Amino acid sequence: MRHGKYPFIIGFLVVPLALYLVFVVGAYLQMFQLSFTDWSGFGGFHYVGFDNFVKLMEDPVFWIALRHNLYILIAMPIVTIAIALFFAFLLNVGGKSRGGTTQGVRGSKAYRIIFFFPQLLALAIVAVIFGRVFGPDRSGMLNGLFPDSWSPWLFLADERWALLCIAVVLIWQQIGFYVVLFSAGMGSIGQEIYEAAALDGATKVTLFFRITLPLLWDTLQVAWVYLGIAAFDLFALVNIMSVNKGGPNNATQVLSYQIYLNAFQNSQAGYASAIGVVLFFLTLTFAALTLRVTRRDAVA
Amino acid sequence: MSEMTNSSLDRRTLLRRAAAVGLVAAPGVSLLSACAGSDDSGDTKQATGTKSADNPLGIDPKAGVEIVIFDGGLGTKYATDVDTPLFNKKWPDAKITYSATQQVSTTIKPRLNAGSPPDMINNSGSDIMDFGAIVKAGQAADLTDLFAAPSLDVAGKTVAETLVPGAVQQGTYGGKPYAVNYNFTVFGLWYNKKLFEKNNWTVPTTWADFTALLDKIKAAGITPFGYAGANAPYYMVRAIMTSAAKIGTEQVLKDIDNLKPGAWTNDAVLQAAKAWGEVGTKYVDKSFLGLKHTEVQLQHNQDKVAFYPCGSWLENEQAASTPAGFEYAMMPVPSVTAADKLPATAINAAAGEIYFAAAKGKNPQGGKEYLRTMLSKEAALEFTKLTKSLTVVAGAADGVTISPGLTSANDALSKAGPDVFVGYLFDTWYKKLDDASREAANQLMFKGGDAQKFCDTMEAASQAVAKDSSIAKFPRS
């Protein structure tokens, strides 16, 4: 029944592929088309060549937003991966070795579930909750914990710290997923390798850097790309948490939010599409670069 | 080992291919372009009837009318319980299809672009559609015939003649009326009348009295003045602009709306910004920059904030959280200088809340007839009773006691006499300028009160809009 294979596969693929073509590829093509128009979002439009892109280069807010995306792109994956790796290591090989096999700290199964909780909450809900955590007066959770003699911290209303607050929330929300991802990766590393190393007198630190990390490299690479893409998004958090639309004073402005403001508020859908095109190429470049730079040909 | 290498290669290839076709890139943008497309479908058959004295708009008595109401602070009861029954009393065979939404843009915009919009639309709320763009795209019906038609229940007057001055003008874009701004809002500084009586604080009319009172309030341990920097700095913009108009007449605001060079660096604007900037540095709690309007309004209700700049919708919006010891009252923004060209009683009162008939719907005349029903005196009075908000129908709620805040606003309106001004329109015309003004107001009030910087920033933003040919311009006279 060899000839029956293809209809079978095609039968499975045709629906998702059609959906993908219409709602993703089609939408992207239209975005590229619209980026060369002056479409307001209503009615007809004219082609204006590269006008939108020229305007983009001269728009100071675009550069501010881009810079913020890049800050997050650099800092957020490093911090998230470092913390997630640390937790995953503790959960898997951080405990006392019993009967010759290494295992996680006590209660590691429960921790694994708890770490995953933030991932189950919708990002919008996380944003609302942290909006209260960072409340700028005594009713804010953190300010409520501070001693009464302190004057309240402004958090999101302070342009120096606003972006950091949003980055912290993103990291908090992401870590759980990567703890689980890395745990799975570590689980597939053979016990006998750890045992052999332990017999040779390796410490926990040596185990981590000499055995866990190299054998986890592929998973790390994937995590890096995912996190980078998340760093280019940030829309939900900025939309809900930021003071005065990506403020104060554009301190939390990011590209995805600029797309939203221009498309749906300022009636400049053509211009918003141009930002979308830039974001598209940025993300693509980032993903390609990451995969190339971190490539390690099989050592074994 | 070889197995592991294989699977990792697969994963990498998969990821690269996924990225290449854009599976993982740039989320959100695709949504935006999903609604582009067909725009010239105005040739659908539209319902019409014969014009007569009884049917001045020439509607088809049997054709249905579809309406969409924004479900927000005003509720929807006025439409379902007042306007629709009133419409059906006159046109029993015309079926009204009603729906309400909080996401106006999300639900209506795709229908406008697809050429099958509802006939009458209430464009409002945080998901409001840019009405200037709607007009430019030819999606709103010309309402000239509606305003020239006889009023439904005021004999011998056209619809336009029954409205407060400026009401038609405010819905006029490029010389033609396209919108009914139904709700009439009085702007000022709101306070708790009972708290002020208890402390013997009197309402100031000069700036010196105002700041002296703010000092007294501060000494009593209450934050004298506040607004919400996180999502409602435009309330503050309104207060600053009101002061500017009082110093130099409404012409100052007209120049601003017309994007005239030097309009923002005008001396009246500078003086107003200076006076308010001082209030910001001395009397506003810095944490308000990070608060939302609901939070500041709640603190106002709890007597933790004394003055709050807002429109007359405030009382109704806060109805559920207003305690027994709180009675809303408003005062006009005090005169900044003794040489102010408008008197201290002058106030900014404007029509707002856009209702329009879609030009490319199935029954635009029916949509207009629904608007004519809303603009009848009977419907207007019921609207005010239900929502505690005035309408643009002149004198519709006179002699009816509804609530202390509304009475106070009505009093201020009659004391102002002819010195009621419409205010500015740039915030609905030019969204980018609106955003710039919000940020500039926050900077002025929370970051040191630099009035010159406020003027310069806004002047630059205004000129940037003036130069941008992709933004439709609306002249104002």
UniProtKB/TrEMBL annotation, chain A:
It is a multi-pass membrane protein. It holds the Pfam family BPD_transp_1. SUPFAM superfamilies: MetI-like (SSF161098). It is found in: Cell membrane. Its main location: membrane. It comes from the Bacteria. The chain crosses the membrane at residues 7-29, 70-93, 113-134, 161-181, 223-242, 271-291. This is Sugar ABC transporter permease. It comes from Actinoplanes siamensis.
TrEMBL record, chain B:
GO terms for cellular component: cell envelope. This is Carbohydrate ABC transporter, N-acetylglucosamine/diacetylchitobiose-binding protein. Residues 44-53 have a biased composition (Polar residues). Its main location: other. SUPFAM superfamilies: Periplasmic binding protein-like II. InterPro entries: Bact_solute-bd_prot1 (IPR050490), Chitin_NgcE (IPR022386), SBP (IPR006059), TAT_signal (IPR006311). Residues 37-56 are annotated as: Disordered. The keyword Ligase does not apply.
